[in-house]
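sry for the spam today, last one i promise. struct tokens for design, 276 residues
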């Protein structure tokens, strides 16, 4: 029971940190330069610039509307999952100072995009959400089987386009640029930054290659039984996961043994488990 309570406290703490990071990215990087990069927070920047309305209040109203839509269309479970984040984000935005930390707009959207990605990725880690425009894609998926990623992209793109009428074409380009940065940073955060390479090897001198790998290079590997698609011959293939820094050294040693060896290399985001 204590362990479960501690886990809930830690999840809530992570959520608070994530939401505050989102608030900092909006209040200190996006909003001071009038760049709306999508979502409810982007809409709030546009409306504040056009009508002078309070950003945090706009996000609060949008999130409440989305919670009601979620309750009547997606059910209680989904609504409960996004309620806390939806209510706390506008609070974080209201208490976070609205200041410009950098004067250059390009630098602002780079840093803002990276921070926004960090905040969203942290929320994903604990299966939470800040609500807002993440709700309509879920509704469209349920009733019309639209892909949520496509629906969210369309919504965010529409928000980005509105920058043209609010702050000009430069703000629109910066908003798109920021969205790309957010996507790339989120991808690296979610799948880990400790990237490796997976190497598949077939050779007529496979026994010698195995010896070099296991003894000289002190590298573990997996032996796979395969069949040639053209020849139909049964063969063996080696599969090993190597650090990026070790990749060229290992490939060089294999090429010394068999210059004609078949080597296929792919990037690996994460590796879990031990040696077998």
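last one done:
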């Amino acid at each position: 029971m204590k362990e479960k309570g501690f886990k809930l406290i830690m999840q809530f703490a992570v959520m608070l940190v994530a939401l505050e990071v989102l608030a900092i990215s909006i209040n200190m990087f996006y909003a001071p330069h009038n760049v709306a990069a999508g979502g409810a927070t982007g809409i709030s920047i546009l409306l504040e610039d056009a009508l002078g309305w309070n950003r945090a209040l706009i996000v609060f109203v949008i999130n409440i509307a989305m919670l009601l839509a979620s309750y009547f269309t997606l059910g209680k479970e989904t609504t409960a999952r996004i309620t806390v984040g939806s209510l706390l984000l506008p609070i974080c935005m209201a208490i976070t100072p609205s200041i410009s930390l950098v004067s250059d707009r390009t630098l602002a959207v780079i840093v803002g995009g990276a921070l926004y990605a960090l905040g969203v990725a942290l929320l994903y880690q604990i299966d939470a959400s800040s609500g807002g425009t993440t709700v309509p894609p879920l509704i469209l998926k349920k009733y019309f089987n639209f892909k949520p990623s496509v629906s969210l992209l369309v919504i965010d793109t529409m928000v980005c386009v509105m920058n043209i009428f609010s702050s000009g074409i430069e703000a629109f380009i910066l908003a798109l640029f920021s969205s790309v940065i957010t996507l790339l940073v989120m991808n690296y955060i979610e799948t880990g930054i400790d990237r490796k390479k997976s190497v598949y090897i077939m050779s007529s001198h496979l026994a010698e290659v195995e010896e070099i790998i296991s003894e000289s290079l002190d590298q573990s590997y997996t032996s796979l039984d395969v069949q040639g698609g053209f020849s139909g011959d049964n063969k063996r293939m080696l599969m090993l996961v190597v650090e990026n820094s070790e990749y060229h050294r290992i490939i060089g040693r294999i090429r010394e043994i068999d210059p004609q060896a078949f080597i296929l290399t792919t990037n690996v985001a994460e590796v879990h488990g031990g040696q077998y």
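The chain has two domains: 2-191, 196-268. ok im logging off now
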